[in-house]
Design brief:
By secondary structure, the chain is an alpha+beta fold. Helices cover 35% and strands 14% of the residues.
Length: 304
Amino acid sequence: MLQKKEGSGPVQGQGEERGANIQDAQQRELIERHRKIANAFRKSDVFLEPFEEGICIRDNLTRTHRLLFNKNPARENHVLIITKQKEKQGDLLNQHDFEASIPVMKALNGVLFYNSGPDAGASESHKHLQVLPFDNIPGKKLPIHQKIMEALKKNGEDKERSHLSLDKFDQCILPEYQEIRHTVCSLDQVKLNGINNDYQFEEACRMYLSAYQQCLERVDNSSGRIHYNFMMTKDWMLIVLRKQAKIEENGFRINSLGYMGLLFARNEEQLQFINSEKPIEILEKLAKPMQGRNEQPFLRGISR
């Protein structure tokens, strides 16, 4: 045991021990500081691990994506497909996004949608797509579905009468949305039920990606710079360009669900607002208008 002699300086062993204690304290302080920073970052991104208990459905949905329950669901079984790595909500969709999302859309028999940024109604900055099953929607179908199918059918008939060939992903606009900058395309060319192997599935996802890119190009937004709502079923794909997310006077907010005909009030004031206004006028206020440098090519040959 080391001892200090009277009148002498500190024993060397004691000095080393004190130095080690100081270093340990500094190390613990540094670790604690890093832990607090990491926790603060996680809290700012709810889609980074660790998740709340019961939220994560499948951690390895694919190599790049996870499947989560929506903590604030519009309806029961409302799920999220999120990227494992930090990607921005607003980044363009890619092949991996479709490969992760299409099986979920098919399994739940629902609608797939993506709110590309704050102006499109996105509430989180981490890239995520959403699926809502038809069985959990009032009437078990989207209010806009029949209108889209009728518009696509009429567009096909008009082109046939005019001896115009149908595009691979034929696009048109909805008469109901003629003041809203949007496009809708048919997905008849992609048959999900006929997929028997990985190659066919990857090819189908490439076709969905191509349709998505063509739709963005049609509304003059190939870069995704303007926030938009992307909506997709096995039959069609719809893109709407957004101007703002909410009505400033009362905070009534709309995302992709609104442009599929599903309006949700958060309180009595918003419910009264919905009942007092024409839904289409609300949708028009929050969307980009049907105008711009690309208007004439966009409308050419399309029946309104």
